[in-house]
Amino acid sequence: MAGITDGAFCRDISQEGFDMVTLGGYNADDHTIQAGREILARGRPEFVVDEELLLAYLEDQVKLVRERFEGSVSVNLRSITPDPIIEVSKIRGVDVVEVNAHCRQKEITSLGCGQAMLRDVLTLEEYVVEIVEKAKSLVSVKIRANVPGVNEVEVAKAVERSGANFLHVDAMLPGSDSADLNIIRSIKENTSIFLLGNNSIKDVVSARKMLNAGADGISIARAAIGGSLNFDLSRI
Ligand SMILES: Cc1cc2nc3c(=O)[nH]c(=O)nc-3n(C[C@H](O)[C@H](O)[C@H](O)COP(=O)(O)O)c2cc1C
Fold it and tell me: Whose CA is nearest to atom 6 of ligand 1?
């Protein structure tokens, strides 16, 4: 999560039994980095690393995770163009680059990045195809559910056509403290891409519900933010 899940955080939380940890999200080009500065200035946590320092910084973060973790390391990235994401995929120890088509901060969406990418499915598909063709790691695309005017199934089909390895869905249901499992079901019924289900997983029951709805894996953010989980992942 922005400004929180750096290498030390991911290294320590990995010991709870995760198969994969995600660094970031990081802004990877000049435009999104400037947007990150503006987000930080209005008081929201954010990683701000200059573009020319980002690769070396991420190399260090990955080394920190690798001190205690042999599972997969993913890096969540925002960028207007695919190139910076492709460069991150070449870092030793990075297993997955994750396209952030999820961020709803206005400074990012006004650039056409983050969840704004969901509004133009064809452009998103071309963007991800280029990353899939040139990346040295696996590729994930993270999307947010229930963005007005966005058809998640069409987005999911485009991500699948692009050849990405994972579709990571924040099944946010506005006004609810539970995930929108109908969207997970619909995506599962219409695609066969590896589906990572996210949102409001805080215990064994909510994790099982996500898997029963069709997710192939789950991800956890807020319930891990304190640096540990209050439930045992091996019981899911
Ligand atoms: C403070 C905060 C910062 C976040 N930053 C990011 C981010 O940088 N990239 C991203 O993909 N998701 C980000 N998220 C979203 C979470 O990764 C996750 O999708 C969302 O919180 C729902 O999952 P949860 O219910 O397990 O927390 C952030 C969430 C919070 C609360």
Answer: 1
Q: How many domains does the chain have?
A: 1
- The 3-state DSSP class for residue 52 equals helix
Cβ(206) – ligand 1 distance below 6 Å: no
Q: Is the CB of 179 under 6 A from ligand 1?
A: no
Let me know if residue 236 belongs to a domain.
no
The answer to whether the CB of 114 falls within 8 A of the CB of 78 is yes
- Residue 79: both structure tokens together: 């960028």
- Per-residue model confidence as pLDDT tens digits over 94-132: 999 999 999 999 999 999 999 999 999 999 999 999 999
25 pocket-lining for ligand 1 (C-beta < 6 Å): yes
| CATH number of the domain bearing residue 89 | 3.20.20.70
Q: What angle do CA 27, 8, 166 make, to 5 degrees?
A: 55
Strand-pair category, 138-144 with 96-101: parallel
Q: For 141-186, write each residue's pLDDT tens digit.
A: 999 999 999 999 999 999 999 999 999 999 999 999 999 999 999 9
